[in-house]
């Protein structure tokens, strides 16, 4: 492939990506999910610690999470009611109750050491999450990165059975976000980008 077509495919993937919040219940093939997760593992990480940990829920485990998602809504609904217009508020509420029927949920954790948490650990996980977003895009899947599970962080930890892990008991595993994923069932408009005051050139 010429470097020009690679370049145009890359920018097309980046610019056409958008958060998807309604999914077909069709489960993506395991090989597709493995490619997406492998893309996550290719992200850069501070000191190459590769300190991301992903917990992938499908089937019954994914279904069981819905009641937790509904609970996380309670933590943020008042703030959102003030910010969002009613139709968007209702759409968001429905998303929290159903997760858009996404067949796959990926909980993304950082395995921190005390002195690395801000310097490298957290940022590295988000680099990997962006690779997941872009890999979904080129695979024809959609996804939505969600900070909402942080509202019920401890309960999510328990739901995933992290108490059985030594690194969790040592206080080193930290939930950063979840990603709902599947084949898109809607085509929302692209969220507008703000350009002013975002980039500052100095010379
Ligand atoms: C760290 C982070 C947390 C987010 N949390 C949520 C969330 O809890 N629920 C949700 O519906 N979308 C969530 N989003 C998606 C954003 O709302 C979305 O990326 C933004 O509105 C821009 O839209 P786009 O992704 O379609 O470009 C989150 C995105 C990021 C990066």
Q: What would you say the CATH architecture of the domain at 54-184 is?
A: 3-Layer(aba) Sandwich
Ends apart, CA distance between termini = 36 Å
Q: Superfamily at the CATH H level of the domain at 54-184? A: NADH Oxidase
- Poorly predicted ranges: none
Would you list the SSEs in sequence order as H and E?
HEHEHHEHEHHE
- Share of helical residues: 40-55%
How many strand elements?
Answer: 5
Mean pLDDT: 95
Rg of Cα set: 18 Å
- How many strands, which pairing sense, and closed or not: the largest β-sheet? 5 strands, antiparallel
Description:
With 203 residues, the chain is of the alpha+beta class. The chain has a domain at 54-184: NADH Oxidase (3-Layer(aba) Sandwich). Helix content is 48%, strand content 16%. It is built from seven helices and five strands, in the order H-E-H-E-H-H-E-H-E-H-H-E. Strands 1, 2, 3, 4 and 5 form a five-stranded antiparallel beta sheet that branches. Helix 3 (59-83) packs antiparallel against helix 4 (86-98). Residues 18-19, 21, 95, 144-148, 177, 191 line the site of flavin mononucleotide (FMN).
């Amino acid at each position: 492939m010429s470097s020009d077509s690679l370049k145009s495919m890359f920018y097309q993937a980046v610019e056409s990506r958008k958060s998807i919040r309604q999914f077909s219940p069709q489960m993506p093939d395991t090989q597709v999910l493995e490619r997406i997760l492998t893309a996550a593992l290719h992200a850069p990480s501070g000191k190459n610690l590769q300190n991301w940990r992903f917990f992938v829920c499908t089937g019954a485990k994914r279904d069981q999470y819905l009641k937790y998602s509904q609970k996380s809504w309670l933590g943020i609904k008042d703030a959102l009611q003030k910010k969002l217009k009613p139709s968007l508020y209702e759409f968001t509420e429905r998303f929290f109750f159903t997760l858009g029927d996404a067949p796959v949920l990926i909980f993304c954790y950082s395995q921190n050491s005390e002195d690395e948490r801000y310097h490298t650990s957290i940022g590295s996980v988000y680099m990997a999450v962006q690779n997941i977003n872009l890999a979904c895009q080129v695979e024809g899947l959609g996804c939505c990165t969600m900070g909402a599970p942080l509202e019920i962080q401890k309960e999510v930890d328990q739901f995933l059975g992290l108490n059985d892990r030594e690194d969790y008991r040592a206080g080193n595993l930290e939930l950063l976000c979840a990603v709902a994923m599947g084949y898109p069932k809607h085509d929302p408009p692209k969220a507008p980008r703000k350009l002013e005051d975002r980039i500052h050139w100095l010379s």
